[in-house]
Automatic annotation (TrEMBL):
CC per GO annotation: cell outer membrane
Protein name: Outer membrane protein beta-barrel domain-containing protein
Keyword terms of this UniProt record: Cell outer membrane, Membrane, Signal
Localization terms from the record: Cell outer membrane
Pfam families (alphabetical): OMP_b-brl_3 (PF14905)
Length: 717
């Protein structure tokens, strides 16, 4: 009781520093200093029904800990120096959240699924970018999502005030000064009463960029003999891309009653890459071949997302979401080998796949909140009709796929030290390939979380979850595609879904200028679908199958230090993980250390930002997929509605490369891909945010849904 009185007294003392005159519709309350970092807001909410922070201008960094999420309140300087939501997110420096400067994508360090939302509704990175910083009340970071979020590793939800009048014109142009590279984005919003109309568009061209590939392939023949073949990259290798997207959005908000949102999206992806090289058979008397490997991928993807939320009486919500999506794709690979001496053709491969996918997703959720507990329940169904035409094989492969998911979860707080949740989901999968046997599978998906709050600054949490898997058409397809003159790939109609079990322990400490989270987790997936290779006649065939087990052990540390409030912030997320891959015919282990770090120095309108990302390497089956080593520096200056900056990536290295390996006994390889796109890339960065006649209201939407396509890429290296 004494703690609660002291906490309440502290909050009242902060508010007592505000201006003592009646607030009008256009007034905001200016807090001289409101450092809420380290406060466990649940202990406050147990005594106080609600503290309205929407109109408080926070002058110091605020990181507030709740039972199931962290609340980040941007301070006044961060808002002033940011011209869009993406820039503000970068300034918040949430450990474990990575913003890729080459494409403005937002991801987790471990590349697991990140759910992005605005007031709860599903959004893309571009929609996050389109938020005016002054609209943002707080950012909710959920690093332990509940069972209704499916396989998401974390959730970022931007809680914003919705303008009731006026509009905005925003943009961000990032042209390169020394490469064929650029990022261009713009957004227009108009508000009237409870409605908002908006358009945003983006364009990401890449052209005349060099790319190289060096490759060492190791083969073991059926008689046990071995040999090596090498690939040396030649001039003429490179790639280009012409990606763009457009969004029309309508939002209706009555904050105390209901919300409706309609979003029409169109995305076009178009990229080409080509490799030229010399293949050398290292055996005595081995021949050399000229190699040409070209890949082109084009996709058109319109989608419509409808969302409705009704705020019922007695702290109840009903939410409904409908998403329709259609995608056409064109994946084309040409691969040739010619004798180096005679130019005689040795291998000629032409794989062209034309895909179509139409999907419908529907979900209805219910949520009821009490003083110390919350109940969530819902049902979701996705139906997809997928077609892939293999032109060279003169084969059309079709499949109807249905995934149903029903779930319920109950969260409860017990006193001031304990809270936890118990959830149960049930997934039903139905796969009906054309002219082949259909299959129906089900997976129970329990989830359990328990948290012990040690004191006002620290807590200990344990999580357990059983996750499901989804089978795609290319996994089931029996169509055989040539990779080169030796290797082929195909699917496996007999694979079955599998479950992954995850056990996680976390310790979190949050006090003053410091936030830290130390954790470890272990996952294992019996029957995991992973590739395997073996000899079939004179070819090595690669296909997927249910293997024995896939395991991972990971230790990680997330830290954030507000060294000089308002001036200097440091963030770092180091980690180490170990894989055990236990296949039907192989066993492999692999270790990897990784780190993401950033620094933000801001004063007098200037901001100096630095990033460091080391390789986060993933191992699955027999394949190691390497991450990127990237570092960068950006200097910017904010002036009124504008932000002007200059950025350089990898200024201190002369060679950018990404490695991959395959440890298969019969056909393993070590491969390095290089490009000049990142190395010492120098760009301008011009942002603007022009607002007129704006007033705000706040609302929150809860469901997050999107549909992944069923398109298939032509098999390649």
């Amino acid at each position: 009781m004494i703690k609660k009185v002291l906490l309440l007294a502290g909050i009242l003392a902060v508010f007592s520093t505000t201006k003592a005159h009646p607030a009008t519709d256009n007034d905001t309350i200016e807090v001289v200093y409101a450092d809420t970092t380290g406060i466990d807001i649940d202990s406050i909410e147990a005594s106080i029904d609600h503290i309205e922070l929407d109109e408080v201008t926070v002058e110091a960094s605020a990181w507030v800990r709740k039972a199931d999420r962290n609340l980040l309140f941007p301070n006044a300087q961060q808002i002033k120096q940011s011209k869009n939501g993406l820039q503000l997110l970068q300034k918040l420096q949430i450990p474990g959240i990575v913003i890729n400067p080459t494409d403005n994508s937002i991801s987790l360090t471990d590349k697991s699924e990140l759910s992005l939302r605005i007031n709860g509704r599903p959004v893309t990175e571009k929609e996050i970018q389109g938020i005016s910083p002054e609209q943002i009340i707080r950012v909710e970071y959920i690093d332990n999502p509940g069972i209704r979020y499916g396989e998401a590793g974390a959730v970022l939800d931007f809680i914003i005030k919705t303008p009731t009048s006026g509009g905005s014109f925003m943009g961000n142009f990032t042209p390169s000064l020394n490469r064929g590279w650029g990022q261009y984005w713009t957004s227009v919003k108009v508000n009237t009463g409870k409605s908002e109309f908006s358009y945003s568009g983006w364009f990401a061209p890449r052209w005349n960029l060099e790319m190289g590939r060096s490759n060492t392939e190791r083969y073991e023949l059926a008689d046990g003999s071995r040999y090596v073949r090498t690939e040396q990259s030649q001039k003429g290798s490179g790639f280009e891309a012409w990606h763009n997207g457009h969004t029309l959005n309508y939002n209706f908000l009555d904050p105390q009653k209901q919300m409706f949102n309609a979003s029409l999206n169109f995305n076009n992806n178009n990229y080409k890459n080509k490799y030229k090289g010399i293949l050398t058979d290292e055996r005595p008397g081995g021949i050399e071949n000229n190699m040409y490997d070209r890949t082109e991928y084009i996709s058109l993807h319109p989608s419509l997302n409808l969302y409705y939320q009704n705020n019922l009486k007695k702290d109840q919500l009903i939410m409904a979401n409908l998403v329709t999506s259609y995608e056409t794709s064109h994946s084309h690979r040409l691969y040739n080998e010619n004798d180096l001496a005679t130019d005689a053709p040795m291998v000629n491969i032409d794989n062209l796949i034309k895909g179509k996918t139409f999907s419908v997703l529907g979900e209805v959720d219910y949520e009821k909140t009490w003083k110390n507990s919350r109940l969530t329940a819902g049902i979701r169904h996705t139906q997809s009709w997928i077609q892939n035409k293999y032109v060279e094989q003169n084969t059309i492969d079709r499949m109807n796929q249905g995934n149903s998911y029903i779930f319920g979860e109950y969260w409860l707080r017990l006193g001031n030290h304990f809270d936890g949740s118990v959830g149960l989901g049930y997934s039903l999968y139905h796969y009906a390939p054309q002219n082949r046997q259909s299959h129906t599978y089900s997976i129970w998906r329990p989830r359990f979380t328990a948290r012990y709050t040690i004191d006002d600054y620290s807590s200990l949490r344990f999580n357990f979850v059983r996750m499901g898997s989804v089978i795609t058409l290319d996994m089931l397809s029996p169509v055989v595609q040539d990779i080169d003159g030796i290797q082929q790939s195909t699917g496996n109609p007999d694979v079955k879904p599998y479950a992954t079990y995850k056990y996680e322990l976390q310790y979190q400490y949050n006090r003053g200028i410091f936030y830290g989270k130390l954790g470890a987790f272990y996952t294992h997936a019996p029957g995991a679908i992973m590739p395997e290779k073996y000899w079939v006649g004179d070819k090595i065939l690669s296909r997927v199958d249910n293997q024995k087990n896939a395991e991972e052990l990971r230790f990680y540390l997330n830290t954030r230090i507000n060294v000089i409030p308002g001036w200097l912030t440091l963030s770092a997320a180091p980690g180490w993980h170990r894989y055990w891959m236990r296949g039907n015919t192989y066993t492999h282990t692999y270790n990897n250390f990784f780190i993401d770090a950033s620094i933000d120095i801001s004063h007098w309108g200037f901001t100096l930002n630095g990033i460091l990302q080391t390789n986060f390497n993933r191992f699955w089956g027999e394949t190691l997929t390497g991450g990127e080593n990237v570092h960068g520096i950006k200097l910017s200056y904010a002036y009124k509605d504008w932000n002007f900056g200059i950025m350089v990536l990898d200024p201190f290295i002369n060679n950018y490369k990404v490695k991959s390996e395959n440890w298969n006994r019969y056909a393993g390889y070590y491969r390095e891909t290089t490009t000049n796109m990142i190395k010492q890339l120098l760009t301008l960065d011009i942002s603007w945010n022009i607002n007129w006649g704006r007033k705000h209201e706040a609302g929150q939407q809860r469901i997050n849904n999107s549909i992944n396509s069923g398109s298939v890429n032509a098999a390649g290296k």
